[in-house]
Every structure is written in C-alpha cells, then in structure tokens.
UniProtKB/TrEMBL annotation:
InterPro entries: Cro/C1-type_HTH, DUF5753, Lambda_DNA-bd_dom_sf
GO molecular function (one): DNA binding
CDD domains attached to this UniProt entry: HTH_XRE (cd00093)
Domain HTH cro/C1-type: start-end pairs: 33-67
Organism of provenance: Streptomyces alanosinicus
Record-linked PROSITE patterns: HTH_CROC1
Listed Pfam families: DUF5753 (PF19054), HTH_31 (PF13560)
Superkingdom of the organism of origin: Bacteria
Protein name: Transcriptional regulator
Amino acid sequence: MRTVTGKGRWCVVPPKKDPDASVSVPCFYGAELRYRREQAGMTLEQLVEGSFRGISFLSQIERGERRMPMDLARHVDQKLGTDGFFERRCEDAAKARQVGHAWYYADVPDMEKQAQTVEEWAPNVLPGLLQTGAYLRGMIQHMDPEVPQEVVEKRVRARLARAELWKREDRPTYWGILRESVIRRTPLPPAVMTEQVEHILDVIRSTQSILQIVPETTPWHPLSHAMAKIMTFADAPPMVYSEGDFTAQIVDYPAHVKEYRRRYDLLRAVALSPGASLALMDDVARTYRDEARQGD
C-alpha cells in the first residue's frame, strides 16, 4: 500500500496494478480511465477530489472490478476534459457487466476473481459459486416461475461461468458456511440434489477449501437472516456483499466490515467442524442417492 498526502490529509492508496483491457468491457473502460488520468498527470486522489467517492472505489473501477456510477463519470469527464467519453460509455460498461446477473449483483463476479479470500454464509439457498445448473433452474422455477426460459438459461450460463474460478491456480481461498436446512429441506428432486451435494463435496475437497454446516438444532445464531460474502484483496480494502430478495449492498465502511467479520467468526464457532460438516454432507448425498434409486 502507498501513503500519500493532500491538503494535510493522509490516506492509503492501493499499489498500481495494470488492468488487462482484453478481459472484458469493464476492464477496457477501467484501463482507458487509468490511461487518461495518467496522461493528465493526476493521482487517484486528485481525480476523485470534489466527488462523493473514495480513492479505493476509483481504483477498483480502473481495475474493472466496480461499476462506474453516472455521477462519477460526469465528474471524471469534467476533470480530465474527455468531452463526455466516460459518461457516454458508462451505461455500455454497466450492461456488459450485468449480462446474466441481477443488476444489483453485477459488480460481484469480477470482485470474486480479484479476491484473495472469499468467505460466505448461506442461510437460505446454496452459494452461487457452488450451484449446479440443475439446482439453479429448479430454484428459479420455484421462486420466480414467470421468468422466460431464455432468461433462465442466460442466468445459468452466467452462474456456471462464475464457477470457472475454481479451475484457476490463483483462485481465492474459500470458506463457506451453510445452514443444514439449505441442503436437507428443498423441493428439488432427489436426483438433482444428489448431483448438487456431490458437486459441493468435489469442489471443496479438490480445492482444499473449507465448508461448515450450522445444524438445524442451532436455531439462533449470528447472521440469522441475510446472506453475507466477505472478500479481501491484495491491493484494496476488504468488503462485504449482502442481499435480500430485491435489494443488495456492498459494504466497505471499515467499522461495518469489522462487525461482519466479528459475527462471521462467531458463526464459525457454532457451526460443525469442517470434518463433521463434510461427513454430514456425505450422509446427505447417500440419502438422496437412495431416494433417487427408489424413484426410478
């Protein structure tokens, strides 16, 4: 991390990391932003001054990790004298990022790719990174049956594309915590759940990740209601993503991130150990396999 000053203030700036403009439209947009800023001889702090955004936020946009808000795009154009370029292309970059994802989730897949660690809590449905296509199709069918089939398939493709992360050698360290009811109490057919549970076991074991289960005998515990995804980065502050049915938020205020971290650690304490959790998952998989055979 680099420390710089401005008007008597000290702040922490992520070290420079050149974005790969070929990865995606948001990465191209961010690389162009960095190029124009450096051509103008401006630091991140100088460019962001006068806006309502922080240095780390602007840095993440330059790396293609965050969506450029329209108000900041106008501010950047004015400061850099870029004749409305970033405002005109702001919506294009946002649309490219959103393909196959809900609008409020659009920033998260790129953050997962950049993260050093990902820690998730799933109280209601399985985490997207662990879902199979059949599980997601079934979940959409039960939760939002009016979604057109072509939209369903677009979501499935986007979800499975996120899971390519598991094949990377530089993938983030993963720790997941699930509520037991998420895998035991589902309307999906036993064959679908057999595939799903076996898929989770394969991912966790093959990547040396950690999974814990909060048993049904523990009804009260920290973070009871909403999902949470805590991500840390090599060159940016940690953040938390949380969502409900129609809303979501990215939390990066340090005090709030610290509180999520504290509660997540308490949740680990009430969950089964990693070994016991995988044993439970093995048992669930056997149960679903038996039920699937009986249904044949």
